[in-house]
TrEMBL record:
UniProt keyword annotation of Secreted present: no
Residue intervals passing through the bilayer: 42-69, 89-111, 117-138
Keywords in alphabetical order: Membrane, Transmembrane, Transmembrane helix
InterPro entries assigned to the protein according to its UniProt record, in alphabetical order: DedA_domain, VTT_dom
Name of the protein this chain belongs to: VTT domain-containing protein
Segments forming domain VTT: 39-137
One Pfam family recorded for the sequence: VTT_dom
PANTHER family associated with the record: ALKALINE PHOSPHATASE LIKE PROTEIN (PTHR42709), INNER MEMBRANE PROTEIN YQAA (PTHR42709:SF4)
Domain of life, per lineage: Bacteria
GO CC terms, sorted: plasma membrane
Cell inner membrane in keyword set: no
Length: 139
């Protein structure tokens, strides 16, 4: 795999795994770390940027949905859990946006309930960046 393609694929893997689409960037990150093609910091930056952008896209999807479909009661368990965390912790709950199964709905619901954008961006970025630092630390 070429060096540029490897970073692009890692960025896209991070992006897709942070949207409502299924995906996992951890395996690709681990493989690229083991291959040693790039500095770990470059890999961390690429996957963190993609994953953060995916989380923000999901947040903005929630914001757009709320604009066209005003708030209704959530009925799905993941949505209810996300809403409860957001009511209790506000944008700081988005530090957990990296969690499997709950992270994507958390970003969507945060946008839907109009959580402050800049604080949400910061919390999503921090949560995802720390997660990938931990993964890199394991390898």
């Amino acid at each position: 795999m070429s060096e540029e393609l490897s970073l692009t694929s890692l960025f896209l893997s991070g992006f897709i795994s942070a949207t409502l689409l299924p995906g996992g960037s951890e395996v690709l990150l681990a493989w690229q770390l083991n291959e040693g093609i790039h500095d770990p910091w470059l890999l961390w930056g690429s996957v963190t940027a993609g994953n953060t952008l995916g989380g923000i896209v999901t947040f903005l999807m929630g914001w757009a949905i709320a604009h066209y479909y005003p708030m209704r009661e959530f009925t799905k368990p993941r949505q209810l859990q996300a809403k409860a965390w957001l009511e209790k912790y506000g944008a700081f709950a988005l530090l957990l946006s990296w969690l499997p199964l709950i992270g994507d709905p958390l970003c969507l619901v945060a946008g839907w309930v109009k959580t402050r954008f800049l604080l949400s961006l910061l919390m999503i970025t921090l949560g995802k960046a720390i997660r990938y630092l931990l993964i890199i630390g394991l390898f």
